[in-house]
Specification:
Helices cover about 60% and strands about 5% of the residues. It contains six helices and two strands, in the order H-E-E-H-H-H-H-H. The chain is mainly α and about 220 residues long.
Length: about 220
């Protein structure tokens, strides 16, 4: 899939910035750093300086490369230009969210205290909102969007399921962000439970839309209208 520097350059700058920032912080970073947190944002595992400073930048680079070249592996790669804008928004948002999470983890090294749990919930909630806003623009493919046996086998199921899934994300994203106002894990678990129920309903709906499709044919084998 063709791309442009307007899309790639911001992502490359962000990923490179993560590595540069880690290099700058290296001399002042402690030997042991928190690398994993529980649902409330409390550190429950510590690792070495290399893991604490380089893990997320490395993951961000890997995710960038994966999403950049994933269309080349897709048998329905001809459909990607039809939703290139939506796919570009998804790619950029994922990299930005990973950078925000990395900032929440490393700012304490600079003496700026943050609640990691709150920061992660706000970032991931924003990610879900973006996903929900572009979900209806996703066209047939094998990797991006809601993939069930029924959305891959029916164009009607794919279209209607992505519309419903978009609304699920648009509701669960702000709910997850709002849960950051509560320190207890219970609020987060409630949001996860509601989101999980919404996802299960979306998967079930994909079957119902497939079952009622009189012109069922593989969605990924067709060009978008």
């Amino acid at each position: 899939m063709k791309t442009s520097w307007r899309l790639e350059l911001p992502q490359l700058v962000i990923v490179a910035g993560l590595f540069i920032w880690s290099a700058v912080l290296w001399p002042s970073a402690p030997e042991r750093m928190p690398v994993h947190f529980d649902i409330t944002g409390t550190a429950d595992r510590y690792g070495g300086r290399a893991e604490g400073l380089l893990l997320l930048p490395a993951v961000a680079l890997g995710v960038y490369l994966l999403l950049r070249f994933l269309p080349l592996l897709d048998r329905a790669r001809a459909n990607y230009p039809a939703f290139a804008g939506a796919y570009g928004v998804v790619r950029l948002t994922v990299v930005v969210v990973m950078a925000l999470i990395d900032a929440a983890l490393l700012l304490p090294v600079m003496g700026i205290s943050l609640n990691v749990g709150v920061s992660v919930r706000l970032a991931v909630g924003g990610l879900l909102v973006v996903f929900g806003s572009v979900m209806g623009k996703i066209r047939p493919n094998w990797f991006v969007g809601i993939r069930t046996p029924w959305t891959l086998a029916s164009k009607r199921s794919r279209v209607q399921t992505h519309r419903l899934g978009g609304w699920v994300f648009l509701v669960s994203g702000p709910a997850l962000m709002a849960s950051s106002a509560f320190a207890s894990a219970f609020a987060v678990m409630v949001v996860f439970a509601v989101t999980g129920a919404g996802i299960l309903c979306t998967i079930s709906y994909s079957y119902l839309a497939f079952r009622d499709d009189p012109d069922c044919f593989p969605a990924v084998s067709t060009r978008p209208e």
